[in-house]
Amino acid sequence: MEYDLSEVPDFFSSWNLHDSPMPPLWCDMTGASPSIGHIHDPHPISTLEVILEGQAILDYRGSSHTLNPGDIALLASGEWHRLMPANGKTFRKIFITLTGANFVPLAEELFGSNYLLHPEPDELKRILQQIELLRKVLREQKNAISVSTAVYALLLETGSCIDKLRSPVLGEVLRYMEQHISEPVTVKDLARQTNLPVNQLQTLFKKHFQMTPTQYFLQMRLKKGAELLLSSKLTVKEIAMMTGYSSGLAFAREFQKSYGVRPSLFRKQGE
After folding, report:
1. Which of 18, 28, 207, 261 has the most CB atoms around it within 10 Å of its CB?
2. pLDDT for position 163
3. Bridge-partner residues for 98, per DSSP?
């Protein structure tokens, strides 16, 4: 992928929980810097690596890949991998450590067996924005839930870019969901956009996301709601309307099921 990432600055942010309980999704450090490469046998923690400049060679799961600027690798804990510069030169990358009890099932749900991603420029821009948000909350160290939320948003954004590897139809459906997130969209509406039978669309989502289109759309709406709670002064009722819920109560009920706290407390903890 041809994409200029030289303007992304070097940085390092971390948060050591010490003896505090580990949240269900967590990142204890992220950074961007030049690299001479590394070998992990096995890697003790999962990482997401984004190539910024130069080329790197990734050896992982029995295959060798050349990574260019903009390419992303999701490397699982407990597995051997080697990431080295091509042609003996250095390369520059972002790294993000990923852990927590919910990380593995969520990663499997979003990425399946895909570990190498080639996002389009607009997709990469959104991913980098989520990384910047994660960097910010790690630096501020106000509360752990803000880190978990940022990790969740990053994984969801990164996972959405592999739809083109799976099926062009999925890309079309996900774009339609994003554009109509405040509307009462049904599975029939989604199927109509792709000229697929409803059962075939259901099967496609089950195969690639291990969830139904309705469940995925709900997840997307709640993610948008969480972002608005932390980034705006909108009321819960206003956010509910913007994310397709009939009332603030309906939004709050679904939000608490997913995030474990009511929207008002989630916002307070994120301040």
Report:
1. 28
2. 55
3. 46
* Spans of the chain, pLDDT less than 50: 1-2
End-to-end CA gap in the chain:
38
Residue-wise pLDDT for 78-100, tens only, equals 888 889 998 778 899 999 999 98
Residue 13 belongs to what H/E stretch?
strand 11-14
Question: Is the bond leading into 42 cis (omega within 30 degrees of zero)?
Answer: yes
**Domain 169-270, CATH among 3.40.720.10, 3.40.50.300, 1.10.10.60, 3.30.365.10:** 1.10.10.60
Strands (E), 36-69: 38-40, 46-53, 56-60, 63-67
Q: Identify the residue whose tokens are 């009890």.
A: 101
- Fold annotation for 11-164: Jelly Rolls (2.60.120)
Rounded alpha-carbon distances, angstroms, from residue 187 to 169, 174, 200, 208, 235: 14, 12, 11, 16, 29
CA dist., res. 255 & res. 218, Å (int) = 10
Residue 135: how many other CB atoms lie within 10 Å: 20
For residue 137, the model assigns a pLDDT of 92
Please state, in angstroms and rounded to a whole number, the distance separating the CA atoms of residues 237 and 155. Answer: 27
Domain ranges of the chain: 11-164, 169-270
- Residue matched to tokens 């490469």: 37
Query: What six digits make up the tokens of 10?
Result: 């070097």
The DSSP string of 7-23 is: TSPPEEEE---TTSPPP
Q: Which residue, among 171, 154, 141, has the nearest Cα to 227 in the 3D structure?
A: 154
pLDDT tens string 201-235? 998 887 776 678 998 898 889 888 988 888 888 99
